[in-house]
Automatic annotation (TrEMBL):
Record CDD domains: DPS
GO molecular function: ferric iron binding
Protein's UniProt name: DNA starvation/stationary phase protection protein
Family that this chain belongs to: Belongs to the Dps family.
Domain of life: Bacteria
Domain Ferritin/DPS as annotated: residue spans: 25-163
Alphabetized InterPro entries for the sequence: DPS_DNA-bd, Ferritin-like, Ferritin-like_SF, Ferritin_DPS_dom
């Protein structure tokens, strides 16, 4: 991961430039994660097939729109803090800490299995950033908390397709998106 850590020349009143720089650094990775998530959701939207196609296809567009709005909110917060939000693909790829989404054209349930793992990663990293910024910036903390509400709800929508009536999640124990996709597809067929 490339680090472009620089302390801003100014930041919002009541926050030191040093703390502003810390928040900017945390938000830079959140911006990359949200931009990546919006592209991944569109990839799934375009490549989902099977009997659940239309339900999943239509479920994803509102998520894409909301995630794009989240990225915009993060970028604007970075600017307000005196930073420079960079949303270019090259920077995203150079600085991200995760690999590309693994699944191409696949059954709806397979994509949802993989997407469940994607959402787990996003939610966990948003929570970690939330805990860190909560130490010194309640405004950014509030922004991330609001986003977590939506991200967790979107994961719940996904998991509703992957959970048995007995409460067992078909993707439990999967470590990769491919494993989760295969587990969801296998258990969804039974």
């Amino acid at each position: 991961m490339t680090s472009s850590r620089t302390e801003p020349k100014y930041t919002v009143p009541g926050l030191s430039t040093q703390d502003g720089g810390k928040v900017i650094d945390l938000l830079r990775l959140r911006l990359h994660a949200l931009n990546d998530l919006s592209l991944t959701l569109k990839h799934i939207h375009w490549n989902v097939v099977g009997p659940h196609f239309i339900a999943i296809h239509e479920m994803l567009d509102p998520q894409v729109d909301r995630v794009r709005g989240m990225a915009d909110d993060i970028a604007e917060r970075v600017s307000a803090l005196g930073g420079v939000p960079v949303g270019t693909p090259g920077t995203l790829v150079a600085e991200r800490t995760w690999d590309d989404y693994e699944v191409g054209r696949a059954d709806a349930i397979a994509h949802l299995g993989a997407l469940d793992l994607v959402y787990t990663g996003i939610v966990e990293s948003h929570r970690a950033a939330l805990a860190e910024v909560g130490k010194f910036d309640p405004v950014t903390e509030d922004l991330l908390l609001e986003q977590l509400r939506s991200l967790e709800q979107f994961q719940w929508f996904v998991r509703a397709h992957l959970e048995s009536s007995g409460g067992v999640l078909t993707t439990a124990g999967a470590r990769t998106e491919s494993q989760a996709a295969h587990a969801a597809e296998r258990d969804g067929a039974q």
